Amino acid sequence: AWLNIEVFDTIDSTNSYLMQNMSAKTHGTCVIANLQTNGRGRRGREWQASLGASLTFSLLWRFQCGAAALSGLSLAVGVALIRGLHEIDASAAQLKWPNDILVNQQKLAGILIELQGDMDGPSTAVIGVGINLHLPEQLLQKIDQPVTDLNHATPSNVNPNALMAKLLEHMVEVLSTFEQAGFDALREEWVAHHAYHQQPVRMLMPDGSEVTGVVQDISDNGTLIVETANGLQKMMSGEISLRSA
Ligand code: BTN
């Protein structure tokens, strides 16, 4: 109810804007852009966009706890998106660890969380979300992974403003659960929607090596637990890229 919403026609990146103006912005500032000219994804990737192609926004949230306690935050946000997407009948939407949203193995949405603060002092998160609405052909050609959009993923007619409002409601609710009880309180719901639960996967490690295994579970702080040839391994989100095997 007390969100402070700013809407831009065009901006470089809603995440960059909030990161650069962090101290001037209050808790609960939400920046929505009709078009980002320099949208950013995880692991240094770009978030490709054109007018109307995707819903792009960022939410600034201040936490009492330090960055160390926020390891499950990006997964928590995934739960909020899943709730909102299922409400608009995108019922095939699933999570891909750590925080992509897939429909039929194709990417529908992504989350980019950037943190400022110490490991154990108060910290501020900029929670960026991009959801594909209607990807035009010339944009599809620039994207180097399987993607889909809500135009294909739901039979409903999606009103982007209504979806935006719904998603913010779910995000506020999930963030309050997360603040009070941690990711543990959302863990079962997360696992129930995981596209790769009990599935064979390949993981591309930061050093270029590849580890294969079967996904067993998600821990209460959001690490992925995989059964590998060397036994159970816990993967921290960071730099790992997960593929189905
Ligand atoms: C990913 O899938 O790698 C994360 C994509 C995050 C994209 C959103 S769009 C709004 C916000 N601003 C950015 O520059 N990135 C995030």
Automatic annotation (TrEMBL):
One of its GO terms (molecular function) is biotin--[biotin carboxyl-carrier protein] ligase activity. It comes from the Bacteria. GO terms for cellular component: cytoplasm. It catalyses: biotin + L-lysyl-[protein] + ATP = N(6)-biotinyl-L-lysyl-[protein] + AMP + diphosphate + H(+). Residues 1-179 form the BPL/LPL catalytic domain. It is an enzyme of class 6 (ligase). Its EC number is 6.3.4.15. One of its GO terms (biological process) is regulation of DNA-templated transcription. Acts both as a biotin--[acetyl-CoA-carboxylase] ligase and a repressor. This is Bifunctional ligase/repressor BirA. It comes from Methylotenera mobilis (strain JLW8 / ATCC BAA-1282 / DSM 17540). The lineage of its organism: Bacteria, Pseudomonadati, Pseudomonadota, Betaproteobacteria, Nitrosomonadales.
